């Protein structure tokens, strides 16, 4: 039997890759599964983006290989977006590298900067891919806790007291997934100062900044960040283009060139039609995001009702596509509880343990589902809980 590489020994198949196959197996015409687990926007991109894709795809000249750095119009649209959205100036010629979704950027950045055995600071709870990629490049994982008693903020004082001499990258993600925490400028400044002092790279993964968030911010707007920071961003969440795989990394010229060395050896430039579409999507004005966030706010209200009947507690001050909530105290095994709900109601909710040990007592509900479906989920779960309560009472009397 051919043995696999040692580098994947500590890397598991992505949870949703495995779990969603199980969830799909429960789907029947009589009772469809309601998936409240995935943050895949269910609404369409703007019509101008779709029209641009169609027009470009019809041009026979637009189907060849493209420049690894993307077309100038796309990079300029990103730079304009940063100026308008974050009041941050970045050079479209030297400080932007388009990516086929920002997720690939996590791998490219790790390969460009991390040597085997060097340490990577990983948020706990946090996006599982940060840990998986660190394992793949042979790094040593250093989880840092986002603490509930700090409103899911980073304990920067504790970091300052720790040995950071072997740290090469610190992953941050604000607005944070899964907790919905938005960092203040002061917090980001402290983190940038820490990175400068200890000479490690700080990377902000920033796809949620325009979703239910009144104060979008880029780490590149922080004084001193230019020498030690990169930022990943994408059109997946804010522009309803998750399946289009359109993202970028932005930062100092020398840092971008290092990422390009990896990217250019692993893939080619993205389809020209997608770049034309992305260029148009980035021109969406304030009314686009106002309309989008109105929909998400309506969904969030129903998601919170569902959490209420589950007996969960949560903060009303959360940004992004999810609602993060703490399971009731009497639930001893949250993963088992979520599976009981799944099999009893065909409603799938994400258990928090997949985001790290700090998420073990929590669950996450996605807002990428219609109000009608969320209300249906609420009805199913309410009936299930009432039936379970009657069953428990009957057992107790027996």
From TrEMBL:
Source organism's superkingdom? Bacteria
Cite the InterPro entries for this sequence. Answer: Aminotransferase_I/II_large (IPR004839), LL-DAP_aminotransferase (IPR050881), NHTrfase_class1_PyrdxlP-BS (IPR004838), PyrdxlP-dep_Trfase (IPR015424), PyrdxlP-dep_Trfase_major (IPR015421), PyrdxlP-dep_Trfase_small (IPR015422)
Needed co-factor(s): pyridoxal 5'-phosphate
- Keywords on record: Aminotransferase, Transferase
GO molecular function term, any single one:
transaminase activity
Instruction: Provide the E.C. number(s) assigned to this enzyme.
Output: 2.6.1.-
Task: List, alphabetically, the PROSITE patterns matched.
Answer: AA_TRANSFER_CLASS_1 (PS00105)
Domain Aminotransferase class I/classII large, chain residue ranges per copy: 33-380
Please state which protein family the record places this protein in.
Answer: Belongs to the class-I pyridoxal-phosphate-dependent aminotransferase family.
Q: What is this protein called?
A: Aminotransferase
């Amino acid at each position: 039997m051919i043995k696999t590489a040692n580098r994947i020994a500590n890397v598991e198949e992505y949870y949703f890759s495995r779990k969603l196959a199980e969830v799909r197996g429960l789907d029947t015409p009589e009772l469809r599964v309601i998936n409240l687990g995935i943050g895949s926007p269910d609404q369409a991109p703007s019509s101008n983006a779709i029209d641009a894709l169609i027009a470009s795809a019809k041009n026979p000249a637009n189907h060849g290989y493209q420049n690894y750095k993307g077309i100038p119009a796309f990079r300029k649209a990103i730079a304009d977006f940063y100026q308008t959205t974050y009041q941050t100036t970045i050079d479209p010629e030297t400080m932007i590298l388009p990516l086929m979704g920002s997720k690939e950027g996590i791998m490219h950045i790790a390969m460009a900067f991390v040597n085997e055995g060097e340490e990577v600071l990983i948020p706990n709870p946090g996006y599982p891919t940060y840990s998986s990629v660190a394992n793949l490049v042979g790094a040593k994982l250093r989880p840092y806790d986002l603490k509930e008693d700090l409103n899911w903020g980073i304990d920067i004082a504790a970091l300052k007291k720790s040995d950071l001499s072997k740290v090469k990258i610190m992953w941050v993600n604000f607005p944070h997934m899964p907790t919905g925490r938005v960092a203040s400028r002061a917090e980001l400044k402290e983190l940038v100062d820490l990175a400068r002092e200890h000479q490690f790279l700080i990377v902000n993964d920033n796809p949620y900044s325009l979703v239910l968030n009144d104060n979008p911010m880029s780490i590149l707007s922080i004084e001193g960040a230019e020498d030690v920071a990169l930022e990943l961003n994408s059109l997946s969440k804010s522009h309803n283009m998750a399946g289009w795989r359109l993202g970028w990394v932005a930062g100092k010229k020398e840092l971008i060139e290092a990422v390009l060395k990896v990217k250019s050896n692993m893939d080619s430039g993205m389809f020209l039609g997608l770049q034309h579409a992305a260029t148009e999507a980035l021109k969406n004005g304030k009314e686009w995001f106002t309309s989008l966030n109105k929909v998400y706010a309506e969904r969030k209200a129903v998601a919170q009702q569902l959490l209420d009947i589950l007996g969960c507690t949560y903060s009303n001050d959360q940004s992004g596509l999810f609602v993060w909530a703490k399971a009731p105290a009497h639930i001893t095994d949250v993963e088992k509880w979520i599976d009981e709900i799944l099999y009893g109601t065909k409603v799938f909710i994400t258990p928090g343990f997949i985001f790290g040990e700090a998420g073990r007592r929590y669950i996450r509900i996605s807002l990428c589902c219609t109000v009608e479906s969320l209300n249906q989920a609420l009805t199913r779960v309410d009936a299930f809980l009432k039936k379970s309560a009657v069953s428990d009472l009957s057992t107790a009397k027996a």
